[in-house]
Specification:
With 328 residues, the chain is an alpha/beta fold. It contains 14 helices and 10 strands.
Length: 328
């Protein structure tokens, strides 16, 4: 099982977006969670760094990206712009990546002046800064730049509402992106039953953002359908390089051919066959043999889409009753 998962993990690392497809019960959702766990690499961080949603025909853009939602305040009903599950997840990944880079930047300028960061690759000739609290002072100046201000500029917004000194902030952002941003803290978002939703309605303009070629840079940020309702109308959205997407789908419900081409070309489709499912999920050798013969007949008479995955036989696999196994 380890090599099998490792192969899929390596494809995901390279392609950013994959879809595990095949017959029902082949363990695609379970496999997706296993691969996500391997990629995250830390059990304690899985809750924050692995996202999950299951698509269905009623799921839409407002659930996934953002939209107007009813809220209750002071016993009065109203409506507010709320982030969808995917946007919330991506924003968390963006902030985490920025936080890590910011900490390294502060360590680089510790002690003030060039001596504090001369040994850090790509930071030479940086405008001299002096660390102070959660931000820095421009050396020999009263200009104070906080972490929050730098983050706002990184997201394409003014550092402060009244403006001013953003040239310094942009200088820091450029250095953060060039020398301190890393992709070692990975986030994985799993979309179960991805083919049961109306993909174009759910993703909208995010077809551009999920493209591996347009990841990881604010230059490729896009305006969403609700950008004008954000507190700052200049708000734009992008997906960083440390976010990976795993979809799962049953071919019998809706085949790959039903996806529009814009979606298909942004994902790598990996088939999880019934035979592979039996080999990796069933311990009992006799049971594996029976299941494979059974699926061979189904494949000839119908198609592979109608074959039966190993998850249907997990109870038998745990049983020691050989007569029951051979009698199915």
């Amino acid at each position: 099982m380890a090599d099998y998962r490792e192969d899929i993990k390596n494809i995901l690392l390279k392609e950013k977006n994959i879809i595990l497809r095949g017959a029902p019960g082949t363990g695609k959702t379970y496999l997706a969670h296993e691969i996500a766990s391997i990629l995250v690499g830390s059990k304690k961080d899985e809750r924050d760094r692995i996202g999950f949603v299951q698509f269905h025909p009623g799921y839409d853009y407002t659930d996934f990206v953002e939209g107007i939602r009813p809220v209750q305040k002071n016993e009065k009903m109203g409506f507010e712009l709320k982030s969808g599950i995917f946007m919330e997840f991506v924003e968390k990944a963006i902030k985490s990546q920025f936080d890590d880079a910011w900490e390294e930047f502060l360590n680089a300028v510790k002690g003030a002046g060039p001596k504090g960061y001369n040994g850090v690759e790509g930071v030479n000739n940086l405008i001299p800064y002096e660390k102070k609290g959660d931000g820095v002072y421009v050396k020999e100046s009263t200009t104070y730049l906080s972490k929050n201000q730098i983050y706002r500029v990184y997201r394409g917004l003014p550092g402060v509402k009244m403006g001013g000194h953003d040239s310094y902030r942009k200088h820091i952002v450029d250095k953060l992106k060039k020398s301190f941003f890393k992709n070692d803290k990975k986030y994985v978002f799993i979309i179960d039953e991805i083919n049961r939703g109306e993909i174009s309605n759910i993703f909208g303009e995010l077809f551009f953002s999920i493209d591996p070629n347009y990841r990881g840079d604010t230059q490729n940020a896009i305006s969403t359908q609700y950008s004008n309702l954000h507190s700052n109308e200049d708000f734009k959205f992008f997906i960083p390089n440390n976010v990976y997407i795993i979809g799962t789908m049953n071919d019998i419900d809706r085949s790959v051919d039903t996806f529009d081409f814009a979606m298909r070309r942004r994902f790598s489709f990996i088939e999880v066959t019934a035979e592979e499912s039996a080999a990796h999920m069933l311990k009992n050798e006799k049971l594996r043999s029976v299941v494979n013969k059974f699926n061979e007949i189904i494949g000839k008479d119908l198609s592979r889409d109608y074959q039966i995955g190993a998850s249907y036989f997990k109870v038998l696999d745990a049983s020691s009753d050989e007569k029951m196994i051979c009698g199915i």
